[in-house]
Amino acid sequence: MFDDLRDLYQEVILDHGRKPRNFRRLEDADRHARGDNPLCGDRMELWVKLDGDGHIADAAFQGKGCAISMASASLMTETVRGKSAAEAKELGTKFRELAMTGTCPDCGADLAEEMERLQVLGGVAEYPSRVKCATLAWHTLNAALEGAKEASSE
Ligand code: FES
């Protein structure tokens, strides 16, 4: 990866890690789940509000974790807004592929904009122990959408 691009990605991660977007409780949420990363003990809580059509109207989280887990949750809550549960889960599947391999060859044009935004976290693929940091929020979202209360990044 070009150094300039790497620096830019790092900057975005640090910015979201320091000032996570949607870092709050959602009192009127329709879905809620807790997620934990057993490797480090970090935990997060996620709330999702659905609109009348079952699309995600709002998503918010709170928790304690490293810059990567906080940045990933922050980016995720911004990216899934307006998506149906099925679309959000599909996005999560693609993101996990990106986090594990650094690329997502079968990410079609329909998700190009979302994946471009999430691409800043693709660098974790080079650090296997950080993959779970990046995917924790997405595991937690899956649990919330499926009605489960707990998720683990294991
Ligand atoms: Fe705990 Fe990253 S070190 S989530």
Automatic annotation (TrEMBL):
Coiled coil: none annotated. One of its GO terms (biological process) is iron-sulfur cluster assembly. CDD domains: IscU_like (cd06664). Signal peptide: none annotated. It holds the Pfam family NifU_N. GO terms for molecular function: iron ion binding; iron-sulfur cluster binding. Residues 9-133 form the NIF system FeS cluster assembly NifU N-terminal domain. It comes from the Bacteria. Belongs to the NifU family. NCBIfam families: SUF_scaf_2. This is NifU-like protein. It comes from Roseomonas mucosa.
